[in-house]
Design goal:
Immunoglobulin-like; 11% helix; single chain; 6-stranded mixed beta sheet; 6 helices
Length: 1239
């Protein structure tokens, strides 16, 4: 690229760069990230004469590089390759001479090639400082102003930078930065800042040695002319190599036009003289880098420009990207239904066409405007012929060579609708006072779910399993036309045809005697008036016909008239004596809120912006007024229903009292609270307010400071120091007097100050006098129904007191909105009814009431927070630890909203008022202590803002809380079993003790119930089709009664479900131990998690399984040492005999080979040795006895020949030597004992 010296074109580029950045920010276009340039600067060791020895330095902005390049003028190049990668290198120039003057810039090497060059350094003649360069940089400002930073680069360090403006002799600003660049800031661009600026530098020690002035930079405030239109011919989507023409057309002739591409402002700035009131910008052969976002504007000879045109996106592509197609509500629809085919693609500004496979021509078209409005292709009343495969294509109205790619398709399946159900009402279709009607939707075959629709309210939809819907007529909202439909399990996405419509009739609200009497009196008065007119006409006719005297006619007319007046008075007296007075509240347009914002928190008066916000969603625009009459500005309302009024830096002309109004279609709101600006360097004056003080009660004093981030101080007259101080807490602070006594009476004021020292203080607020007066007790104040209402609802406030003949006043957010005078005719307690016929979004707020007689007022009633819902998105309500709770336990209900700083309310179905309130910055946790049966039921929550009419969110989805343990627990079974393979179907059967109960299926680890059913019998079947791995887990179920107090059962026994191809492995253990003992067996116990299985035991080394068992017990003996070794077991389900589980972990049984067996063997050896010793001893004894045996035998043969007997005495004598042995023939020894001798 050739290097040009800056000239008029560059000046104009810089001028409109400022214009572009400021207006682009106002359009909301984000700043684009530009490729960073390297930095080039000068260093010299002669600070007072730097041209004597110059070294140029080049620095990479964000990465290290291996090569750097220095360019001079158009041709000369010097490049340096350092020995290692670095951020910066130096190029030595030496003394500046005529030969080395010129334009310098540098580059660095990156992975994709040489970087973008640095800014141009101009070295002129020796003895002069280098000429500085001048450019602008935009910051993100508070709209609609624009903060501009002007950067001046002087190339040398320690210079003094001066900013000059054309027409001023002295510099408007100066800086002495530590580096080579100075930044001059212009805050909040205004027409006063317009002009031509230049920058010059000089050496600090030589103030007379100046550089040449930089190129001039002209700042222009844009937007003086209307914006032009930018169009592309033949189209804004073209292929590379094709030609394109962009036409910029404005309403004024003779202007110059400019075209810009936002992605690269400096390289894509084009300008042309106009042909009449338009200019053409041609692209002969498009390249891919020509794609981007373009806009244009025009300007006059003084460079005063127009607003920017709308951004036009140019696409340069070879092939169209894919579109995607989505069928709503489902790709499976019933005949006769409507289906929406939503087609979208990344290319914007082009139409789309819908095609069906098998047909050449497109079925429908959508232009670019319809796509921007989120419109879709609609197929109405589909039939079976509409089924097929659909796709959508880009629709171009010009010729191009861009290729069309394949498109995503959607297959539409059309099925016949199920027959329509019947809808009936019980006990009748007419509402009675205080009674509800049950709508019964019935069909002859089983269904999955019924749905009830209400024609008068599109968003109304109720669901029921049994087809019964209870409709109440609260505030007249039950009447209307209803119909129902259903869906079946076979096609859960297909709803049946709607039933025949059924109309419910009844009064619009509660039918009271007051209503009947009012209508009767109104009808009576009308009839009397008609009768009076008839009588007068009859008299006139008679007068003309019979010529009766005029006096008689006048007397008759007066008599009839008096009769009518007396009757009317009697009717009015009857009305005042019988009817209860209802005062309708004519709500004014909601008062807007006014506050201030600044981007200088320590000095807010340097740039102040006033904001006005309305609580009403129908606000069209805002008006800011000064001192009650001065018209400052009008701003349209944004999506947040607010508008900004920038004041800029405060001057003396800004001092005064400001307030704002909001404008709707036919009404103007009340003025906001007045914001008072009292000086150019002082904070806005705060406002102090409080409710009437009551002796002995707490009192809150509100100090409104208008700005966020301020400190607050409360002063009491007569005391020097503040009585209370509060830190930064939003735009207002609340001071609290814990117990109001006589000593607390007096005049109070408050002041605000900046957050950091030294403090900048505001003026004191207007004094507030606190005086304790004698008061009546506070009244009883409530709403007829719940204070949480939807838009359009009817609300009645009841304010009552036992005092007689009192007048009442209703307050909203501290301001009086309605009053009711005393009734002298009604004895007894006083009561007033304040009615809002149709609540709007802006009617929410804090309401209270007071009553009074001639001089004495009552204390304010307790406030009632009226919350109008359906303004913010609905929150999410969760129960921790879960929605099923045991009696006496605690449960926390967490309400999660979409915005911060909201107030939350917890609601229970059937309760008239919210149960709890919380004001938190994040989510709200509502704690239910020691729950019992009364706490069972449906809960929901809302969140709402407290500053703007209590605008609330939609109600959260209802969350059912069950307090269990009040009914017998059910049984939970799995069919066909607790283990199934992935992709199979399973049914969990929950058997209860009571019929017609609602059953709930729960899963451990999942907070919400999986499913609910209300079967007609004692059992619910929860069908789980095509189960997956994540369906594994522990399940249980409970059942509960549908009617209050919603008694629920205990949990069933837990049932573990496995979704797997292989059952989980069992466990194997040995009893009594893993060591065999002599003669003892070991029992191996195999246990698995599933019932109804058969176990098998396997022994290492054996091919076939050893034993089978149904209870898992196997007896092992160690005969011949065959029992020792490693064992494992597995099992199979009896329902699936071919599927075996994984084997258990191995278990080793040890015998003789183990240490215990060795101990047993040693014991046996010891015992055997003892046995041998005993046997040997016995053998010795026997041998000795055997030797004696022959002598006994010889003596036996000399006997008298009798049987072989041994005489005892002989044996004894033989065995006892030294004794005398008697002869056997001695007569004195006749007795003997015969002993048999064992062989």
């Amino acid at each position: 690229t050739a290097l040009h010296r800056p000239g008029k074109e560059a000046t104009m580029l810089r001028t409109f760069s400022i214009l572009l950045f400021c207006i682009r920010l106002s359009l909301g276009v984000p700043s684009l990230v530009m490729e960073s340039q390297p930095e080039l600067w000068i260093e010299s060791n002669y600070p007072q004469a730097p041209w004597e020895n110059i070294t140029l330095w080049c620095r990479s902005p964000s990465r290290i590089s291996s090569k750097f390049l220095l360019l001079k003028d158009k041709t000369e190049m010097t490049w340096i390759r350092p020995s290692f990668k670095t951020f910066q290198v130096s190029f030595h120039i030496g003394a500046l001479t005529e030969s080395n003057t010129g334009l310098y810039r540098c580059c660095y090497w990156k992975e994709t090639g040489w970087s973008k060059p640095s800014k141009v350094l101009e070295l002129e003649a020796p003895g002069q400082l280098p000429k500085p360069i001048f450019w602008i940089q935009a910051e993100t400002p508070p709209l609609p102003g624009c903060n501009v930073n002007i950067l001046c680069h002087g190339w040398l360090q320690d210079l003094v930078f001066m900013l000059f403006k054309e027409g001023y002799a002295e510099p408007v600003d100066y800086q002495v930065p530590t580096g080579t660049m100075a930044i001059f800031s212009i805050d909040n661009m205004t027409p006063e800042n317009e002009g031509v600026y230049i920058c010059r530098t000089h050496i600090q020690m030589l103030p007379t040695l100046w550089s040449e002035p930089s190129n001039p930079l002209k700042l222009v405030v844009a937007g003086l002319y209307p914006k032009p239109t930018l169009t592309a011919y033949p189209g804004h989507i073209m292929a590379p190599g094709e030609s394109l023409s962009l036409r910029c057309q404005g309403p004024i002739y003779g202007m110059a036009f400019a075209l810009m591409r936002l992605e690269d402002l400096e390289k894509s700035f084009y300008h042309k003289k106009s042909i009449r009131n338009e200019a053409y910008f041609f692209f002969r052969s498009l390249k891919s880098h020509d794609a981007g976002h373009y806009l244009c504007f025009y300007y006059d000879g003084s460079y005063r420009g127009s607003l920017l045109s709308d951004i036009l996106e140019i696409w340069v592509i070879d092939t169209f990207p894919k579109t995607w197609l989505l069928a709503q509500p489902s790709p499976v629809v019933q005949t006769g239904q409507n289906v929406s085919l939503q087609c979208r693609g990344p290319v914007v500004g082009v139409g789309l066409a819908l095609y069906k496979k098998g047909e050449d021509k497109p079925l429908q078209f959508l232009d670019a405007a319809s796509i921007n409005d989120n419109k879709s292709f609609i197929l109405n009343n589909v039939t079976l012929s509409d089924a097929g495969i659909y796709s959508c294509h880009y629709l171009l109205t010009w010729k191009t060579s861009i290729k069309m790619t394949s498109h995503n398709t959607v297959e539409l399946v059309v099925v016949d609708k199920p027959p329509k159900p019947s809808l009936s009402a019980w006990p009748s279709t007419v509402f009675k006072l205080g009674k509800a009607i049950t709508l019964q939707c019935r069909v002859a075959h089983p269904v999955l779910e019924f749905s009830l629709e209400w024609e008068e309210r599109v968003t109304f939809q109720k669901f029921s399993v049994n087809g019964d819907f209870v409709i109440s007529n609260v505030e007249g909202k039950g009447t209307g036309t209803y119909s129902c439909s259903y869906r079946i399990e076979a096609h859960p996405d297909i709803w049946s045809q709607r039933s025949e419509p059924l109309k419910l009739m009844g009064p619009a609200g509660f039918l009271t005697w007051n209503y009947v009497l009012n209508e009767a009196i109104r009808l009576s008065l009308i009839m009397q008036l008609v009768a009076l007119l008839v009588v007068v006409l009859w008299i006139r006719w008679k007068c003309r016909r019979l010529r009766i005297r005029e006096a008689w006619l006048l007397g008759t007319a007066q008599g009839v008239t008096m009769l009518f007046i007396v009757t009317a008075l009697l009717c009015c007296g009857l009305c005042s004596g019988v009817l209860t007075e209802e005062t309708e509240i004519i709500m004014p347009t909601p008062k807007p809120e006014l506050w201030a914002e600044t981007n200088f928190p320590l000095a807010p008066w340097k740039n102040l912006t006033l904001w006005c916000r309305s609580p009403s969603g129908s606000t069209k625009e805002f008006v800011l007024l000064k001192d009650g009459t001065g018209w400052i500005a009008t701003r349209p309302a944004s999506e947040q229903v607010r508008a900004a009024f920038p004041l800029g830096a405060l001057t003396q002309s800004h001092t005064g009292s400001y307030h704002c109004h909001s404008w709707e279609e036919m009404a103007v709101s009340e003025p906001s609270e007045a914001l008072e600006l009292v000086g150019t360097d002082i904070l806005p004056k705060p406002v102090l307010s409080a409710s009437p003080p009551v002796r002995g009660q707490e009192l809150q004093i509100q100090c409104k400071g208008w700005l966020a981030g301020l400190g607050f101080a409360l002063y009491k007259e007569g005391e020097q120091e503040p009585v209370q101080r509060l830190g930064a807490a939003g735009r207002e602070a609340f001071f609290t007097i814990q117990r109001m006594e006589d000593k607390d009476q007096g005049n109070y004021s408050c002041r605000t100050h900046t957050e950091r020292r030294p403090f900048k203080w505001s003026e004191p607020s207007e004094p507030l006098q606190l005086v304790i007066k004698e008061m009546y007790p506070k009244p009883f104040f409530k709403t007829w129904r719940s204070p949480v209402v939807t838009p359009g609802a009817r609300v009645t406030f009841n304010c009552s007191t036992p005092q007689q003949h009192m007048s009442f006043i209703l307050y909203k957010d501290g301001s009086e909105v309605a009053s009711s005078d005393r009734s002298w005719a009604s004895p007894g307690a006083s009561i007033a009814h304040f009615l809002i016929l149709s609540v709007g979004i802006g009617d929410g707020g804090n309401y209270s009431c007071r009553y009074y007689d001639f001089a004495i007022w009552s204390e304010p009633s307790d406030p009632v927070e009226l919350v109008v819902t359906e303004f913010y998105p609905k929150p999410t309500l969760l129960a921790q630890p879960g929605p099923v709770v045991l009696p006496g336990k605690n449960v926390t209900l967490r309400c999660q909203g979409a915005f911060q700083g909201m107030r939350f309310a917890l609601l229970q179905e059937g309760a008239q008022a919210p149960l709890q309130f919380q004001s938190v910055s994040g989510n709200a946790d509502f704690l239910l202590h020691t729950v019992d049966a009364e706490d069972s039921g449906n809960y929901s929550c809302i969140y709402y803002e407290t500053t703007m009419s209590n605008r609330g969110s939609y109600l959260s989805m209802p969350l059912m809380i069950w307090v269990t343990g009040l009914l017998p627990k059910p049984n939970l079974l799995a069919q066909p079993g607790p283990m199934v393979a992935p992709g199979e179907n399973m049914t969990l059967q929950c058997q209860g003790e009571l019929p017609d109960s609602t059953f709930v299926l729960l899963k451990e680890g999942t907070q919400e119930p999986l499913e609910q059913q209300r079967p007609s019998g004692y059992r619910a079947d929860f069908w789980m089709p095509v189960v997956r791995g994540e369906d594994s887990g522990i399940y249980s179920c409970v059942y509960y009664l549908d009617s209050a107090p919603f008694a629920a059962s205990n949990h069933s026994d837990s049932l573990q479900i496995w979704v797997t191809d292989k059952p989980p492995k069992p466990s194997l253990s040995a009893w009594p131990s893993m060591v065999f003992k002599l003669g003892k067996d070991i029992t191996l116990q195999c246990r698995g998690p599933l019932p109804g299985v058969e176990f098998v035991l396997e022994h290492d080394g054996e091919e076939a399984p050893q034993q089978f068992s149904e209870d898992g017990d196997f007896v092992i003996n160690n005969v011949e040492g065959k029992g020792i070794g490693n064992y494992s077991c597995s099992y199979r389900l009896q329902a699936y005999p071919d599927i075996w589980s994984e084997p258990s972990d191995p278990l080793e049984l040890v015998g003789a080979a183990g240490p215990a067996a060795q101990e047993c063997t040693v014991g046996n050896i010891v015992r055997s040795s003892l046995i041998v010793v005993v046997v040997v001893a016995l053998g010795v004894v026997l041998a000795i006895e055997w030797k004696k045996w022959p002598r006994l035998r010889t003596r036996g043969s000399e006997t008298d020949g009798r049987d072989q007997t041994i005489v005892l005495e002989e044996c004894n004598q033989e065995g006892e030597p030294g004794t005398i042995t008697n002869s056997p023939s001695s007569p004195s020894q006749e007795i003997s004992v015969e002993l048999p001798v064992p062989l």
